[in-house]
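A quick aside before the break. I want you to see a complete sequence-to-structure record at least once, exactly as it would be stored in a machine-readable document. Don't worry about memorizing anything.
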Amino acid sequence: MSTFQLIQGVIIGVVVLASLYVAFRKLLPKTSTRVMAGVSASLNHDGRPGVLRTLGKKLQPASASGSCGDGCGSCNSCGPAPTAKNDAQPLTFKSRQ
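That is the input. The structure line, written in tokens, reads:
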């Protein structure tokens, strides 16, 4: 195996892992939040080196701490929930003749 093939394999592996990470976060947001919270909690223990504790704090997911009635959306952005406009218009049928 040449050096070029080794570097090519590493680059392709990194691209595939990055795309899997993005797809996991996009398609399974609740599960990814739970996984990231678990990894963060396991890294952020007393007695761990400072580098691992810092990494654990950075991996800790930001979650909404409010209830369903405070205007927080399902995307955890805590912005105002979009209001659905009810611009109902009656149907009118016209004959072709």
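Two observations worth writing down. The chain is about 50% helix and 0% strand. The helical segments are 3-27, 29-43, 50-59. We'll return to this after the break.
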